[in-house]
Every structure is written in structure tokens, then in C-alpha cells.
Amino acid sequence: MYPVDLPPVEDTELMSASELYLSSLNATPCNNKWFESSQTSKVAITTANIRPLRLFEDNHPACEVLALHPPEDPSQVVALYLHDKWWRLDNVLRTSSKSRSGLVSAQSIIERLIVFLLSQVAERPSPPEQVLFSLHPRSESCKVLWTDNQAVGFYTVKHKGSLCDGWSSCCYLLPVLDTLLVRRSCRRRGFGLQILEDFCSSFSSEEFLGLSSPLSPSMAAVVRRFLQQHEEQRERLYEVEAPGGWTQRRNIWLNIQLGRYSSKQQECAEDSAPFSTCNMNTPLVAASAELHMNRCDVNHGERSPSSEISETGCFSAAHYDGPDLRSHNRPRIREWPRRRRMKSKIVSSRKHSGENSVETEKWPKRARRTKVNL
């Protein structure tokens, strides 16, 4: 059996066991023991080679685990002290339970430890990828991906209504997939798509879902493939900043079509790099100058002649449906039928003033419906 299969422990028990062990180790400094990290190497179990690992962003109450490291590299983790013994890192990430398969919600402190190890220890970044995940809050929802009795990935979610940070009263306005990772050894096996499917199905009653901005190149590539396979999700998924108001989100599928993501992002193979959507405070990428983004002139019921979409998310009434009024006046991304667009051109050339006035009255209404009200 492995640590995750043993009876669950509370974080207070974990802390007290660690403190007792360090006290006993300090009491007998000359009674050195060794931990065999592999068949060819071992590490002395001394206080100089032990450091605590903080598991959560909010450390109140404190929750730490003792880690054993080689003397020449304190950043490495050779073993962890759990259930009164030292465990190799690989064994902490394993299970003997057949029920742990696929995506399983992280409930126990050991399961949250596994999320920590995957994000901070097991997958150490290498150039040019110099991005580490921030520590996750204790209250954040997590799911661990299990396959072949190993933890190979995870994703975390900011729930609708949860606080955006610890120093304001701002709350998320929609569920947001905040971080996602698949281990390098298990990529190109469709796990990224599996996680996105699970995220969308877990919040099937929500009209809109978010992915934290900015999307990494690999994440953008996986989302692109996911939306190609699941057309019904194209109007649901938005790249968002906290808290996720309409000025802080943009439809991912629409921006893929507009070329807002670089070719490198779209050509990146699935699972080719760690999926990261971990910075909720980074501003959304500004529109390219090549797109000539201008604001919609909703006051005059006209669209900008040089653009199809505005910086605020205003869509041209000639090409897009007006928003569902029950959906906060959101813009739709479905095109008008061809016959309706042709009709608008024919009407403009009619000489009968009565018909002309009727048609022109429709344009201001459509334009006003496309305005994003906050």
C-alpha cells in the first residue's frame, strides 16, 4: 500500500508527527541513518538534509511536510516523511487501489499533497519553460488524474461565487479552470482533452465557463482541438481575468478564428508542454493592429466600416445575432444567414421610402442589442 491508500490523516496530525520526528532527530545527532534513493545512491537522514514543504498558499493553519534532499541540491526532493516513515517520491504518487482511475476529486490531505508534488516537485521546469505554478489555496477545488495506478496530472477550479483573493470582496462570476498539468511522460495520450471534457460536464448547468488568462501555447492548442470536436462548447468557453466580468473575458473559439492566438500556439501538439492557465491578474492580450479594432457606434445604429468586432466585444449586427437578453446581453458568435445579409443590401437600394424607413429602423435595434452591458 502507498500513503494515499492508508487511513486519512488531518493536517494537524501531519504537523505534530513531523515536529516529533525532528525533535527525536535533534536529540540523537550522531545516530545517522541513510535513505536509499536508488540502487546506486543514498542520502544521510540528518537535519541538514531535511526541509519543510508548505502545501498551501494560505498557511493558516500551517500545513507542512518534511522532505529529504541531497546535500548538494536542496531544491530536489528524494523522499517525504509520512505515516512515521520515509517514502520515495515516486511511491507517494502511486496507489494500489483500482478504484482510483480517471479524474478523482482530491479530498484528503495526502491527495492535496499529490497535487502539490505534481505542480511544484515532480515536473521541474526546464528552459525555455521557466514558469512554476503558484501554491494553491486550501479551499480550491482539485481533481487528480490517475492512470495505471499513478497520478499523472491534475486540474483546479475557481468556483462561481468564491473569493478572487484574500484581501478584497471580489468573487468569481463564473466557474474558471485555473491550472492544469499532465506529466511529460504521459503526454500525447488525450489527457488534456479528457480534462476539458470533465470540466465542461461538471458544470453542465452553467451557461458560461472560463479558462484563466493567459493560455499557454500548449493549452491554446488543446482547447482549439477540443472546440473542433465539440461545437456545442464554442459559445461557452471564455478566456477570463478575475472576477470574470464581460470586459474581462473573450470567447476562445471566436478569437481562434480571428487569429488572436499565434501560429505557434495553434501548431503546438496536444500535451506537448505543461498546460498553464495560472495567472489571473495578467491583462488579456491586446488586439493586433492588423485587425483594426474599433468601437461599435451603437448610438447611431451603425457598425465600424473597418472592423468586424470591437475592443469591448461588440459584434457587427450585419454578421452576428444579437445576444440573448437573459444572458447579460452577451454577443453571439453565430453568423446571420446569407439571405438575410443580402436582403439588407437590397433594401438599401429600394426607392420606396416607406419600405426603406421600415428596414432602417431595424438596424439601430440590432446594433443596440449587440452592446455589452456590464
Word description of this protein:
By secondary structure, the chain is of the alpha+beta class. The protein folds into 3 domains: 3-92, no CATH class; 102-267, Gcn5-related N-acetyltransferase (GNAT) (Aminopeptidase); 290-369, no CATH class. It contains 9 helices and 13 strands. It has helices spanning 11-27, 89-92, 109-122, 191-202, 217-229, 252-257, 263-267, 338-348, 353-369; strands spanning 33-36, 42-45, 50-54, 64-68, 79-82, 85-88, 102-105, 141-147, 150-158, 176-182, 209-212, 237-240, 249-251. Helix 4 (191-202) packs across helix 5. It is elongated. Mean pLDDT is 76; it is low at 269-276, 278-329, 331-353 and 355-374. This is Protein FAM169B-like. InterPro entries: FAM169. Residues 321-336 have a biased composition (Basic and acidic residues). Residues 337-351, 365-374 have a biased composition (Basic residues).
Write a brief caption for the model.
Residues 337-351, 365-374 have a biased composition (Basic residues). This protein has 374 residues and is an alpha+beta fold. It has helices spanning 11-27, 89-92, 109-122, 191-202, 217-229, 252-257, 263-267, 338-348, 353-369; strands at 33-36, 42-45, 50-54, 64-68, 79-82, 85-88, 102-105, 141-147, 150-158, 176-182, 209-212, 237-240, 249-251.
Structural class: alpha+beta
Mean pLDDT: 76
CATH class of the largest domain: Alpha Beta
Evaluate the radius of gyration. Answer: 26 Å
Q: Give the tally of β-strands.
A: 13
